[in-house]
Amino acid sequence: AELLGRAPAVRGLVVHGEKRGRELGFPTANLSPEAEGLIPADGVYAGWLRDGDRTYPSAISVGTNPTFAGVRPRVVEAFVLDETLDLYDHEVEVVFVARIRGMVAYEGREPLIAQMTDDVVRTRAVLGS
């Protein structure tokens, strides 16, 4: 990011995912595979989701969701903190501010939910929100 002079970002259409985040209590905005921009290495990031003139603090996942069985495509998905939004079919920009951790496969839902809860706490600390 420092070499670019700005934080890496990706822009794309929000599409329907597998609804796993919603089932876990962390609904995410999934970007279409055709999203354009600088997608960082797989992991969890603190950042921002921009929808038009609105900007929201977000915990962002980049990767294949290795906790769940099967080979999956690499996806970018953002959990917007403290908001319930319907972003389907919106063109949004996701800005990656800081890497929180690498991508990990967890032994079931409960350890994953605990980690996602911690990811949100760490995202708040990074973004000051």
Unreliable stretches: none
Broad CATH class: Mainly Beta
| Tally of helical runs | 2
| Inertia-based shape | globular
Percentage of helical residues?
A: 10-25%
| Largest beta sheet: strand ordering | 1-2-6-5-4-7
- Helix-strand string: EHEEEEEEH
Task: Give the radius of gyration.
Answer: 14 Å
Show the helix and strand layout:
Elements: E1 9-15, H1 20-24, E2 29-31, E3 36-37, E4 43-51, E5 54-63, E6 75-80, E7 91-101, H2 109-127
Antiparallel strand pairs: 1-2, 1-3, 1-7, 2-6, 4-5, 4-7, 5-6
InterPro entries: Riboflavin_kinase (IPR023468), Riboflavin_kinase_bac/euk (IPR015865), Riboflavin_kinase_dom_sf (IPR023465)
Organism: Clavibacter nebraskensis
Family: Belongs to the RibF family.
Task: Provide tags for this entry.
single chain; 129 residues; alpha+beta; Elongation Factor Tu (Ef-tu), domain 3; 6-stranded antiparallel barrel; 19% helix; 37% strand; FMN adenylyltransferase activity; Riboflavin_kinase_bac/euk
